[in-house]
Amino acid sequence: MIEIRNLSKKFDQFTAVDDLSFTVNEGEVLGFLGPNGAGKSTTMKVVTGFLAPSAGSVSIDGHDIGDDPIAAKSLIGYLPEGAPCYGDMTTREFLQFIAEIRGFRGQDRDERVQHVIDEVALETVVNQTIETLSKGFKRRVGLAQAIMHDPKVLILDEPTDGLDPNQKHHVRELIKNLAQDKIVIISTHILEEVSAVCTRAIIIAKGKIVADGTPAELEARSRYHHAISVKLTSDYDLAGDLQGVPGIGAIEPDDSEAQRFFILASDGEPIFAKVQDVAQEKSWPVTEFHVNRGELEDVFRTVTAGGQA
Amino acid sequence: MGNLGIIFRRELMGYFATPLAYVFIVIFLISNGILTFELGGLYIRNQADLQPFFMLHPFLYLFMVPAIAMTLWADERKTGTIELLLTLPIKLSDAVLGKFLAAWALTGIALALTFPIWITVNYLGDPDNGVILAGYIGSWIMAGGFLAVGTCMSACTKNSVIAFILTVAICFLFVIMGPNMFFNVYPAWMPDVLVDAIQSLGFMTHFEWISKGVLDIRDVLFFLVFIAAWLLASAIVVEMKKAS
Q1: Which is higher by pLDDT, A17 or A190?
Q2: Are residue A244 and residue A166 in the same domain, yes or no?
Q3: Which helix (H) or strand (E) holds A289?
């Protein structure tokens, strides 16, 4: 369990993290979201013991990161932002170094190194120096060192940044597989990633938590939650047909696509059946008709632009 | 092997993984040769000893040692690997000491490779090899002093060139503080007590006798305390500046 209590981090006059408190339990994959400069990376740096907090405390499984840093750090696998590695070492040398620091020796060490090489598919580059690797491979080397000791707590700062879609998928699968009875915290800008791998999401802005819940709960806060998305083949007066139907809110055109409209639910209740009835009755010229789960992006924009969703 | 040893080995391997170690050693040996024979006049003195060789080491170290110290911490911060290193379950002291010892070992290797000069004097005459050994040990310990300053300066900045220049400047002060063959830095009005006090901190004050083969415990202690103090300062600076 990670307990973060009243954590603040100030740099001179600038407050990067402002009185943050939350707890993460085993089995949770926490997505840490926020705009650039919201304090995501700073929070991670404090939690992993790289930076000392200005106030508050962090404890990893009962070990305070300030008072008992070695024990706390032993439990953590950490991929820092940008996945820094020693560029002049080969992949294998680097991973061997990490394995030794993590306490593996001799045969044990080599087995562990081979295991993580297989896990993140680094076999083809084991003898290359890290500085010659592509961005995707570098990121995977960073991941490999983070999971070296099968850590209880995995903290990944933008783990899929710079990866191609296949690699992203691979890394997400990896995180899902690792997540059982572990604590995983990942920071990301990519909202689909949260829906894909996280069991919980925290959105922070200006160093404070502005939203905390499962991805589904957060999606439910979206004004597009339960909204019906329809694509028309020709102009049609949707609003006229729906006038007087209870539970129907505004009708908005989609900015990104012509002839697509959102029919919003006004009181958070499903409106699919009602709208479907009207559509059938009036024979709407539609080619697509589906229910929107709600959009994290919409929630993200609302809560980080100030004020609660 | 503890964490200190693991970090030491990684750092030392790092020097030899790039051309840095080889360039350093080759240039060190060439400069050493030129200084010893041209400036020190090893042959002209007609004495079978290595005093001119050792006497010029402070000036050789002045430029060579900061070159290997400058990247020690500056590069860690520049590339961000410091975040990786310091979130591993290691003590800060292991990291600072491991890096320092690796760089010190490299200077030791370079120094040891000057052995042909020792063979030469043995071939030409009958030197006191105890004196020469004492000179080597003393010279290596003094190199550690230069290196400790460099470690600290490297921790102060992300820019290794700045670290180099600062190290040279500070080491230069410590070199000229003591008696030296080139110039007198103390103005006449300065009271002798003060001059003595400042001089006692100079490298040459302590190295002069070492270069003659007198390995006085007090001189050795001076350099060891000097190293410890700068390394302690390095650890404090690393801790303070790692965020930026």
Answers
A1: A17
A2: no
A3: strand A286-291
